[in-house]
């Protein structure tokens, strides 16, 4: 086990919206260290969201992110030779990182079209409480609810 907790690094906010959450999202979106490409994809997606919904693109993205953010998850724990799925609450930083990764992952899985357009569609779907990333959150919550009987095994 670690002796000292690692320092939490402060991330520089993005240039357009001056928001750290956007910078974290872009860092997750980035492939092969191409941050400028990731920023281009994200900003294009936000502009597309703004055109399609005629609402503020950043606010729609934040709403989508909060809709996809899970509150509980199940973790495996071995008790007496049997493995149980134990529901646990998730700490704040993990919640947001899971939500971001789900949105990006499901946007990548959408077929055809440029990445910015796929991301825009996933953002719009998540803000309306539909789409694959929202379904993943619902499934996670449903699984935790189903295994609530094993919550007394929590550490």
Mean pLDDT: 93
Q: So what's the CATH class? A: Mainly Alpha
- Structurally, how many domains make up the residues? 1
Strand content: 5-15%
The ordered string of helix (H) and strand (E) elements is HHHEEHHH
What is the CA-atom radius of gyration, in angstroms? 18 Å
**Main sheet record:** 2 strands, antiparallel
CATH fold-level topology: Ribosomal Protein S7
- SS-based class: mainly alpha
- Known CATH architecture: Orthogonal Bundle
Task: Give the strand order, joined by hyphens, for the main sheet.
Answer: 1-2
Q: Care to count the β-strands? A: 2
Q: Return residue spans where pLDDT drops below 50 for at least 5 consecutive residues.
A: none
Query: Helical content, roughly?
Result: 55-70%
- CATH homologous superfamily caption: Ribosomal protein S7/S5
- Please tally the helical runs, counting DSSP H or I stretches of 4 or more residues: 6
Overall outline: globular
Q: Give the N-terminus to C-terminus distance in angstroms.
A: 17 Å
